C-alpha cells in the first residue's frame, strides 16, 4: 500500500476535525466530567470528556507524554498510576474543586488503598492525586481505545511536564545575571545560543543553561531559602535538568548539608562520633603520657607491634616511670590475650622489672 497525497490530505482533515466543534467541546465545570487514562511501553495518555446537554459525551482536551528510559522499566501499576497523576497535574486548574471520574483499564488501581505505601514512588503519586475529588472506575481496554491510541503515539517530551515547576527556578537568576556570568566562561564545543542570547550546552540531548560555580552557588542558596529549605535530592531534581555547572553536585551537597536551619530542624542520619573523655591535667612530669602509631599495631608477625612493645618497656625501665610501666603492662595483657607473646617472655619481663 502506497501512502498517496490524497491519503495524507484525508489524514490531516481528520486531525482538524478532532480539534474543532462539533467533535471538541468547551470545558464546563457544571457538567459531568470523566478522564480516560492509559499507559503503554511508549508513553502515557488521557482524554478529558464531558457529558453535553444532549446526553452525548464529547472530548474536551487530550494529553499524551513520552516515557523516560527509566520509566519504561517500571511495572504496569506504576505506569497506569503515573498516567492518572500526570493527567491530573496537566489539567489541575480545571479539575481542582470539581468532582469527576477517572476511568482506567488497570483493575488493581480500582481498589488501591491510599493509606498503604508498598512502594515509595507509587505512594508519592497516590498521595498527590488524593487531593482531587474523584471516583476511580475500571473499564476493559477494548472500551478505552482513544486513550490507548494516544499512549502508543505520545506527543509531549518527558521534560515538557517540568514547565509548570521550573518557572520560579529559572527566575531565581535574571537574564542579565546569566549573561554577565556567561561572559566570563570559555566557549564549549557543543553549545548553542537561544533568542535571548543565553548560552546552552547539550548533554544527552538536553539543552542546559551554562553557569559558573559562583552563579550556581547563588542560585542554590536562593532556591534553598525560598523553597522551604528542600534537601539534596529535591534540589538536584529541580536544577540538574535545567542548568550546567562544573561542580553543581558538590555545591548542592555542601549547601544542603551545612545549612544551620536544616541542621537544627531536620533529623538526618550520620555517623555517630565517639564519646570524648577528660584527661588531666597532670600534677608532675611524665604523669600522663600518650602513645600514637600510624595505622594499627598489626599481627604477631608484625615488626611494628613487637618494636612498639619493647620500646615502651625499655623506656619505662630507663626512666623508672611507673606510668610507662603501667602502659607496658596494658600492652602486655593485649599481647597475651591474642597470643602475640609467649609466657616465657612474660616471666623474663617480670624479672627485669623486679
Concise structural overview:
The protein is an alpha/beta fold and 354 residues long.
Task: Tell me what the structure shows.
By secondary structure, the protein is an alpha/beta fold. The protein has 3 domains: 10-156, Ribonuclease H-like superfamily/Ribonuclease H (Nucleotidyltransferase, domain 5), CATH 3.30.420; 159-265, Endonuclease III, domain 1; 303-353, no CATH class. Helix content is 43%, strand content 14%. It has 14 helices and 9 strands. It has helices at residues 5-18, 76-90, 92-95, 120-129, 145-152, 163-171, 175-182, 213-226, 232-239, 248-258, 260-265, 303-319, 322-337, 343-353; strands at residues 33-39, 43-51, 57-66, 100-104, 134-138, 191-193, 199-203, 206-210, 243-244. The strands form 2 sheets. Strands 3-2-1-4-5 form a 5-stranded mixed beta sheet. A 4-stranded mixed beta sheet has the order 6-7-8-9. Helix 8 packs parallel to helix 10. The termini are far apart. 22% of the residues are buried.
Topology (SSEs and partners):
Elements: H1 5-18, E1 33-39, E2 43-51, E3 57-66, H2 76-90, H3 92-95, E4 100-104, H4 120-129, E5 134-138, H5 145-152, H6 163-171, H7 175-182, E6 191-193, E7 199-203, E8 206-210, H8 213-226, H9 232-239, E9 243-244, H10 248-258, H11 260-265, H12 303-319, H13 322-337, H14 343-353
Parallel strand pairs: 1-4, 4-5, 8-9
Antiparallel strand pairs: 1-2, 2-3, 6-7, 7-8
Helix pairs in contact: 2-4, 8-10, 12-13
Amino acid at each position: 500500500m502506497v501512502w498517496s497525497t490524497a491519503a495524507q490530505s484525508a489524514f490531516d482533515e481528520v486531525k482538524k476535525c478532532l480539534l474543532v466543534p462539533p467533535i471538541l467541546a468547551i470545558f464546563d465545570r457544571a457538567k459531568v466530567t470523566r478522564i480516560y487514562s492509559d499507559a503503554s511501553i511508549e508513553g502515557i495518555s488521557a482524554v478529558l470528556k464531558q457529558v453535553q446537554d444532549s446526553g452525548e459525551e464529547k472530548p474536551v482536551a487530550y494529553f499524551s507524554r513520552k516515557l523516560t528510559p527509566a520509566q519504561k522499566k517500571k511495572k504496569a501499576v506504576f505506569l497506569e498510576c503515573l498516567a492518572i497523576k500526570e493527567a491530573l497535574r496537566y489539567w489541575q486548574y480545571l479539575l481542582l474543586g470539581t468532582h469527576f471520574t477517572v476511568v482506567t483499564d488497570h483493575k488493581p488501581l480500582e481498589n488501591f488503598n491510599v493509606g498503604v505505601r508498598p512502594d515509595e514512588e507509587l505512594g508519592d503519586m497516590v498521595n498527590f492525586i488524593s487531593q482531587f475529588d474523584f471516583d476511580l472506575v475500571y473499564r476493559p481496554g477494548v472500551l478505552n481505545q482513544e486513550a490507548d491510541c494516544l499512549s502508543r503515539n505520545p506527543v509531549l517530551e518527558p521534560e515538557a511536564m517540568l514547565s509548570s515547576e521550573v518557572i520560579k527556578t529559572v527566575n531565581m537568576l535574571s537574564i542579565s545575571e546569566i549573561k554577565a556570568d556567561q561572559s566570563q566562561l570559555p566557549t564549549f564545543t557543543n553549545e548553542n545560543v537561544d533568542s535571548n542570547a543565553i548560552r546552552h550546552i547539550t548533554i544527552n540531548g538536553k539543552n542546559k543553561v551554562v553557569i559558573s560555580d559562583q552563579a550556581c552557588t547563588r542560585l542554590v542558596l536562593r532556591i534553598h531559602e525560598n523553597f522551604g529549605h528542600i534537601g539534596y535530592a529535591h534540589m538536584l531534581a529541580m536544577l540538574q535538568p535545567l542548568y550546567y555547572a562544573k561542580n553543581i553536585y558538590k555545591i548542592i551537597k555542601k549547601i544542603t548539608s551545612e545549612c544551620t536551619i536544616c541542621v537544627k530542624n531536620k533529623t538526618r542520619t550520620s555517623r555517630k562520633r565517639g564519646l570524648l573523655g577528660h584527661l588531666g591535667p597532670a600534677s608532675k612530669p611524665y604523669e600522663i603520657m600518650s602513645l600514637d602509631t600510624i595505622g594499627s599495631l598489626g599481627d604477631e608477625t608484625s615488626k611494628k607491634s613487637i618494636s612498639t612493645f619493647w620500646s615502651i618497656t625499655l623506656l619505662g625501665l630507663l626512666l623508672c616511670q611507673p606510668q610507662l610501666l603501667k602502659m607496658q603492662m596494658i600492652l602486655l595483657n593485649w599481647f597475651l590475650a591474642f597470643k602475640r607473646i609467649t609466657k616465657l617472655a612474660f616471666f623474663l619481663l617480670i624479672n627485669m622489672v623486679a
